[in-house]
Amino acid sequence: MKLSHLARTTAVLAAIGLTVTACGSNGDGGAADEGGAEGESYSIGISQYVSHPALDATAAGFKEAFETAGAEVTWDEQNSQADQGTMNNISGNFAQSDHDLIFAIATPSAISAATAITDRPIVFGAVTDPVDASLVADWEAPGGNVTGVSDMNPVHEQLELLQQIAPDAETVGIVYSSAESNSVVQVEAARDAAEQLGLELVERAITNTNEVQQGVQALGDVDAIYVPTDNTVVSGLESVLSYGIDQQIPVISADTDSVERGAVATYGIDYHAQGVQAGEMALRILQGESEPADTPVETVPSEDLEVVVNQEAAEQMGITLPEDLLADARDVADAEGEDEE
């Protein structure tokens, strides 16, 4: 990624008051970095909102942090598959359990867990704006039993990337779940960014994954589509990708996992790394080095943001990616080639 993008992203995050606190991979992360948890054992409940690659990667990264530290963990992994009743049952069961800590993946699961559980730490991952979701009182001082790692993404830079890929684009479609506060926050950011960049944003709100196809078709004659880190839409991403291919317009995503599934590009978050970051935070809390109430919400370090492209998807959508972009980007095909070796 070009340095200008990285610098701007850092400025954006700083401007909205986020604090990139020291995480394990960056320095003074504490015992998690030093293998200090070796020999210790914990019982941890994981409440995941729905299955899709980004959230699955978050869970895997979280567990990897404990494995790296040498901690022995009894995992209780539950997935509500986006069903509110199931999600509340999971939270209720966790509240009655003897788990030492709860890891909640995505905003709906975190809200449900925080409502039901007040007597032990809750660490979240893949939550965009924990203050807007009433999970914490403040980014710097959460004030309760909940803290975690935000996946706030650089929406402005991602729309700039879209303009670099499709310089003639004037209208950008965005489908989002009106029930997900994390998505509403991103749409608001996209409105501001679009106005600054001279783009027209065409919005369509949906309520469940079955409506993704209907929502994207209702966008009409747009020049490109932007997919935020919306769990409902990402769960039905294939409908969006098919529309992009049919209409020969680029689909840009907010996360790297969606590029691997067929979006053209992103300047986004590595959700596995974000999960590791949340796991290292949880270890510090379990080891008594910090309390959730005074553990600032972390964001993903700028060095973990990268431009990721999918040249095969670009060809399918009739897009020729600029050479200067390719020079700085990671192509998902490279990773696939390495996996085959």
TrEMBL record:
<dbReference type="InterPro" id="IPR007487">
    <property type="entry name" value="ABC_transpt-TYRBP-like"/>
</dbReference>
<protein>
    <submittedName>
        <fullName>ABC transporter substrate-binding protein</fullName>
    </submittedName>
</protein>
<dbReference type="InterPro" id="IPR028082">
    <property type="entry name" value="Peripla_BP_I"/>
</dbReference>
<feature type="signal peptide">
    <location>
        <begin position="1"/>
        <end position="24"/>
    </location>
</feature>
<dbReference type="Pfam" id="PF04392">
    <property type="entry name" value="ABC_sub_bind"/>
</dbReference>
<keyword id="KW-0732">Signal</keyword>
